[in-house]
Amino acid sequence: MSAPTHHRDNLSIDQALALRTAAVRLSDTFRDMFGTETIERFLHSSYDEFAGRAVVLNYLPLLAERFARQRLKALARVEGKAHDGIPVVLFLCTHNAGRSQMAMGFFTHYAGDRAVAWSGGSEPGSRVNPAAVAAMAERGIDISGEYPKPWTDEIVRAADAVITMGCGDACPVFPGRRYEEWVLDDPAGMDVAAVRPVRDEIERRVRVLLDELGVPAA
To answer: Which of 19, 22, 63, 93 does the annotation list as catalytic?
Structure first.
């Protein structure tokens, strides 16, 4: 994750209240695993990450809370504080706006609660590609509520498999993970018709991955 830029110095009253409320909710979930300082540090650094490129400022506290929750879940796995035995797959691409979002959408759709999918980007965009959203909607999968985000060390370390799609040397490498590169066209700038073949190839590969992981597809 990039270095904090302390965008919280210019918080509105509503945003400050929303962040305090988010910290309480996160504490309710993770207080048995982490101290208040750790929880708030993850929340605030997540906020700073999104604040530098946010399009709609009103959603920043919610995005920060969602990302901090994911990061804290990952840290709990890394530190052995969570033992659900469910495999975690991390899908990575450059902007986390197209390929990795579609892959996560298919994986979650087919795996249900039998596995977990996360996604991230080396240079996260400002929103998910609308053509990718439309292409996935054609398959009955809604990714419109997703958002581009970076990866962090704890998220990569918590993953059992890391699937990369075009992030090149920027993709993280940690020992003991399963790594696989999927060579796929970048849907950036494509219309829905051009995205469909990419979408279909991602679906095929996700189903193969689920089979290899021993996760029955729904």
So the answer is: 93
